[in-house]
Amino acid sequence: MTEIQWAPEACTLPTAEQPLREAEFDDLFRTAAGTTERVDPNTLVIRLPAHAESWAKDLATRETTCCSFFTFTFDTASSSGPSGSFGSLGQAGSLGQAGSFGRAGDPAGRGDDAAARAGDAVLMTVTVPPRYVEILNALEARARSLWA
User: Fold this and answer.
1) Which residues, 6 or more positions from 51, have their beta carbon under 8 angstroms from its beta carbon?
2) Domains in the chain: boundaries
């Protein structure tokens, strides 16, 4: 990636590192193809395979340290929900600046975890304040373009 697609001016990550972070999100979206659902203008739900849960949580933890306007929450989903929906929600977990869901021995979070054993998907909900909706739009567009 040669230009910054969705990193806002409010991001405190050094400018030189912003394309690398965007590439990490691209890698997650490209490797762990899923779906998106816009709950409201400020909230995006991204469905990822359960095996990507630790990876997504680690990335979200790091993202909230530089872009504190993002709020990430994670839920497990099963295929028992109605067709075309995100399924049944399980235990919710909220991720803030101090939170980290990474696992020892699997820093990238790409390995098997509890969600992979308990269900078939993880729901990563991303919420932003109204002034950052365009950033959320760009994140959603990026995910969809990589899944197409």
Assistant:
1) 32, 110, 111, 112, 113, 116
2) 36-147
What CA–CA distance (Å, rounded) separates 6 from 19?
10
For 41, counting Cβ atoms within 10 Å of its Cβ (0-12 exposed, 13-18 middle, 19+ buried), the class is exposed
Task: Pull the structure tokens for residue 6.
Answer: 């969705």
By DSSP bridging, strand 35-40 and strand 71-77 are unpaired
84-91: Cβ within 8 A, 24+ apart: 86/37, 86/45, 86/47, 86/121, 86/123, 87/119, 87/121, 89/123, 90/118, 90/119
The model's pLDDT over 17-35, given as tens digits with 9 standing for 90+, comes to 888 999 999 999 998 888 9
Span 59-93, pLDDT tens digits: 999 999 998 999 999 998 865 443 333 333 333 44
